[in-house]
Amino acid sequence: MGKTLFDKIWDAHIVTSVEGGMEVVYIDRHFIHEVTSPQAFDGLRARNIGVFRPKQTVATADHNVPTKDQHLPIREALSRHQVDALIHNCADFGLELYGLGHPLSGHRAVIGPELGITQPGMTIVCGDSHTSTHGAFGCIAFGIGTSQVEQVFASQCLLQSRPKRMRINVEGQLGAGVYAKDLILYIIAQLTAAGGTGYFVEYAGSAIRSLSMEARMTICNMSIEMGARGGLVAPDQTTFDYLQGRQFAPQGAEWENALAYWKTLYSDEDAVFDKEFTFRAEDIEPMVTYGTNPGMGLGISQVIPTETGQSFEKSLEYMGFKPGESLAGKPIQHVFIGSCTNSRIEDLRLVAEFVKGKKKAPHVSAMVVPGSQQVAAQAKAEGIDRILEEAGFDFREPGCSACLGMNEDKIPAGAYCVSTSNRNFEGRQGPGARTILASPLMAAAAAIAGEIVDFRK
Amino acid sequence: MQKFTLLRTTAVPIPMEDIDTDQIIPARFLKATTREGFGDNLFRDWRYQADNTPKPDFVLNNPAYSGKVLVAGRNFGCGSSREHAAWAIADYGFRAVVSSFFADIFKGNALNNGLLPVQVSPDFLHQLFSGIEQDPGIEVEIDLETQTIRIPSKGLEETFPIDPYKRVCLINGFDDIDYLISLKDKIAEFEVSMG
Ligand code: SF4
Questions:
Q1: Are residues A269 and A304 in the same domain?
Q2: Is the CB of A128 under 6 A from ligand 1?
């Protein structure tokens, strides 16, 4: 019987298995950041051991950092302390750190690909659930907890039980104005926020094949939002073209060797998946979420469904919405364009093209946060920063920013924010903040109109 | 890691589904660099008003409910991979969480911290919720040795799944790192074979 892409990569990384079924999986690349690593470093100290393979770990600070004046010391003491701890820990344990202000710094899920660190066939982990983003390159990438960060430090391995395999096929062509973000929000709305739990997802089909690498990253990024451990896309010419010539990608003869291997990374024709779904790209329209989990999404022309149950009612009450209502025409006060889901150069280009020559609604505050220093530099080189600023948008420095309400960028209680991030949980963007997830274009259009709109009209 | 064997206790119910880790511990409380003290902010925004006064209708503020087991609706622990969620629940004093379905990363994090995720059938969960509703003093018994959860006063019991390796770890208070470190030679051999 043939193998799935997932199993090909997984099997190539098994060091040994444990009675009862768990496996010791070798990890090729480990990304760390300031929030989920300090306790792991302390664990190493308590055991009096070092990092087993320090060259395979890369550190950045991104969650707990301001997105303004990054050249100044961080004002908030606890945040500063946490970022400083990362600096000391990396120095103590001999790890590479792309710290604040470093020209290569940014979100791990953005810089891994843009530097060519992320490559097909790898296993990649990080103490961050959106590590699944790297899966766009045909690798197994997933989020882990801090105890596991310590395990990887100590042994470059993890004890894992093999997830089940799911394939999601999307066939056909996405309509005008429909993007990868809409596609993944649509899939999650169909499968629910728990529909992927226990599975690792492969995205396939003609609609996925025709997507750019950045769009595939947006899709894989949100795999966790349906509960899946991660998602991946088989590498193809689009992947190879993206990687060739990047700083840490293989060069010369090594490139040829790597390429020959990468071309074997696909699910065999007769591979069997534990679950399989097929969707039609034509059925998807621009999406928005109306509730407090990412599975509560609908097409912009649809209305909020009528359901019962305490969780559903609490969710709508929090959002201030009613069953049967349309979201189109709802006033909003904030727009956040950024996060590891949608902060890459293609996202910023789309937004700039749309807002060029327009002005944001006076009552809206709109923030654009690039995913990395390189994205920021590219945006500036293309004049995107100026276009955005002329439209009244605030173009900031890289970071997680208002995605998670941890740093200085927060949405006030009760306010509505159309956000290109990945989670609309209660309080995610600040206590009481109400998040509506959407694509960068839907967010930009909402900023201009001052309300949720179908920009295609 | 604290050992886990037999637990008999009252339980605290939160009959909501899809409780995500941002509710369990909001991001703004993740700035600490140690594992301790997160229990104070467990369910922070459900538990306290903006001015830090307790919300009287939230179950953790209701003296009628106490115990070492948290009972919650399906898809508990979805969202972020923050282990702080498991730390907060354990730090507050819970030893087990009962639900009909757990998010993957949370389940792993819980097990790595001696907090037992007990997955039960929707029907058993329903029985447990209604039992607690009728009598907050009702006891549950969780036996890891036999992988059984019981509501003695109702005469109900069910077995629950757990990875056999993890079960042994929890019963003995071992963690994965000791095991992985013991494999170092094998791992180095594997690296050579990988090229
Ligand atoms: S942007 Fe948001 S989702 Fe992505 S890593 Fe940062 S906090 Fe997490």
A1: no
A2: yes
User: In this prediction, what percent of chain B has a pLDDT beyond 70?
Assistant: 100
Q: How confident is the model at residue B174 (pLDDT cuts 50, 70, 90)?
A: confident
- Coil vs helix vs strand at A163: coil
The tens digit of pLDDT for each residue in A374-418 reads: 999 999 999 999 999 999 999 999 988 899 888 889 999 999 999
DSSP summary character for residue A136: G
- What would the pLDDT profile of A286-335 be if each residue is shown by its tens digit? 999 999 999 999 999 999 999 988 899 999 999 999 999 999 999 999 99
Question: What residue numbers bound the domain in which A4 lies?
Answer: 1-284
Residue nearest to atom 2 of ligand 1 (CA): A403
Same domain, A267 and A340: no
Q: Both A82 and A93 in a single domain?
A: yes
C-alpha A372/C-alpha A348 separation (Å) is: 12
pLDDT given at position A285? 97
Q: Do B109 and A147 touch (CB under 8 A)?
A: yes
Classify residue A455: in a domain, yes or no. Answer: no
Low-confidence ranges of chain A (pLDDT < 70): none
SS3 B86: helix
Residues A320 and A375 in one domain: yes
Q: Which CATH number is A237's domain given?
A: 3.30.499.10
What residues form DSSP beta bridges with A367?
A336, A394
In a domain, A157, yes or no: yes
A67/A100 same-domain check: yes
- ipTM of this predicted structure: 0.91
Picking from A16, A143, A193, the nearest residue to B186 by CB comes out as A16
E-state strands within chain B: 6-14, 69-72, 96-99, 116-119, 139-143, 148-151, 156-159
Indicate whether this model's pTM tops 0.90.
yes
CA distance A404 to A430: 7
Q: Residue A22 and residue A230: Cα distance in Å, rounded?
A: 18
Residues A202 and A150 in one domain: yes
Residues A254 and A293 in one domain: no
If asked whether residues A187 and A334 sit together in one domain, one would say no
- Taking the alpha carbons at both ends of chain B, their separation in whole angstroms is 36
Alpha carbon of A86: minimum distance to chain B alpha carbons (Å) = 10
Buried b (16+ CB within 10 A) or exposed e, B170-184: beeeebbbebbbebe
Task: Classify residue A457: in a domain, yes or no.
Answer: no
- Inter-chain contact B23–A427, Cβ cutoff 8 Å? yes
Average pLDDT, chain A: 95
Domain tally for chain A?
2
Sheet holding A275-280, edge to edge: A230-232, A199-204, A164-171, A275-280
C-beta atoms of B184 and A227 within 8 A: no
Biggest CA-to-CA distance, chain B: 63
Q: Is the CB of A36 under 6 A from ligand 1?
A: no
Residue for token pair 């509710």: B23
* CA of residue B129 to ligand 1 center, whole Å: 35
Q: How far apart are the first and last CA of chain A?
A: 50
CB contact under 8 A, A425 and B74: no
Interface test with A, best of B52, B111, B168, B176 (most A CBs within 10 A): B176
Considering only residues 97 to 126 of chain B, which have any Cβ-Cβ distance to chain A shorter than 8 Å?
Answer: 101-105, 108-109, 112-113
Q: Which two tokens stand for residue B110?
A: 């819980």
In the numeric block, the tokens 């490559």 are attached to: A119
Q: Is the CB of A217 under 6 A from ligand 1?
A: no
Q: pLDDT at position A138, please?
A: 98
Q: What is the Cα B31 distance to its own chain's centre?
A: 22
